[in-house]
Inverse folding.
C-alpha cells in the first residue's frame, strides 16, 4: 500500500477535483499492483476476453475502448472483483459507477505505464510517477 500512498502524495489529494481523479488513478494502480504489475494485469485480462483491447493499450497505437460490463466481468473472473468492491465502498460509490470510470482510466494507465509499447515481464515494478502525470492529464482534459 505504501506505493499507493506515495502516488496520493504526488497528486496532492484534496485539491478540488484532484481527489476524484487521484482516487481513480489509485484504484487503477491498486488493480495493476494486485495483478502482479502491468504484465500480470494484461495476462489476466487476455485470459478473460479482453486480449485485443489490452494489446492496444500496451502498444503504441490508439487504445481500444472496453465497456464497464466487459471490464467488470474480466476483473471479477480474474479474481480482482473484490478490489473494485472495496474501492467502491471506500469511495462511497456504486461498484457499477466506479467500473464505468475505471473502464475509461485503466486503458490510459496501462498505456502510460508502457511507453515503449511493451509490458515489462521483469520484476522491476512500475513507475507510479507516470500515473501521477496521468491524473494531472485527466484533470486538464476536464477543462479545469
Amino acid at each position: 500500500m505504501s506505493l499507493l500512498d506515495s502516488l496520493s502524495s504526488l497528486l496532492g489529494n484534496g485539491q478540488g477535483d484532484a481527489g476524484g481523479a487521484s482516487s481513480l488513478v489509485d484504484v487503477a494502480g491498486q488493480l495493476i499492483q494486485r495483478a502482479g504489475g502491468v504484465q500480470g494485469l494484461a495476462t489476466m485480462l487476455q485470459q478473460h476476453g479482453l486480449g485485443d483491447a489490452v494489446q492496444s493499450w500496451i502498444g503504441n497505437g490508439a487504445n481500444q475502448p472496453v465497456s464497464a460490463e466487459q471490464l467488470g466481468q474480466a476483473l471479477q473472473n480474474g479474481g480482482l472483483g473484490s478490489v473494485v468492491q472495496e474501492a467502491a465502498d471506500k469511495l462511497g460509490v456504486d461498484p457499477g459507477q466506479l467500473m464505468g470510470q475505471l473502464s475509461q482510466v485503466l486503458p490510459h494507465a496501462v498505456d502510460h505505464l508502457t511507453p515503449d509499447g511493451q509490458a515489462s515481464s521483469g520484476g522491476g515494478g512500475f513507475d507510479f510517477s507516470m500515473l501521477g502525470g496521468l491524473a494531472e492529464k485527466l484533470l486538464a482534459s476536464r477543462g479545469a
Remarks:
- Confidence is low (pLDDT under 50) at residues 1-18.
- The two ends are 29 Å apart (CA to CA).
- Residues 57 and 90 are 27 Å apart (CA to CA).
